[in-house]
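Morning run. Coffee first, then this:
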Amino acid sequence: MKQTVFSDELEGWLHSKSPKTIQSLSDVFAEKSFAIAILILMFFPTLPIPTGGITHVFELIVMLLSLELMIGRRKIWLPKKWQSKHLGKTMKHKITPMIIKKIRWFERYSRPRLGSAINHNVTMRFLGALFFVFALAAFVSPPFAGLDTVPSLGAVIVALALILDDVLLMAFGTLVGALGVGLVIASGGITIGIVRHFLSF
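And here it is:
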């Protein structure tokens, strides 16, 4: 019997009659719900398109979920209004299919590696801190600079690694996210330097 892969499970949920909400994700995917929610929420900032500030809302939600991971929660808690909020038509019909397409690309090259170590409580707390830093970097990145895409991509890859139980993919995502954080910090330093230069006149 062919084993069901995650992308097929996500696509099945997308086309099912269940409501397309974070609460529904949590109910269907149980212990993987944190990683799946973070993957979907942080995928949006990776897209080089105008988002009208909605990505900041997603990043704030991810920071809250990250804090929950850091204190050892295994079940998502969010205000009821957020949990029951439906995905928009754009998210459901355009963005989520794009996510599934990207996931399938990674699934071709990924395989379970040290899954038990990844799902250890200490590792999950560390990943919570990692997700928080990546989401925060994306949140504070200079507007219209496009720098939020790199730490967001790191968060997406790490979340996918958690879903696929692949420690090698997790290391890759961590490197990508760390690069993104570095770019945001560097750009912030340059911006501050320019402001100080003009104020000194």
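Residues 158 and 170 are 5 Å apart (CA to CA). Good start to the day.
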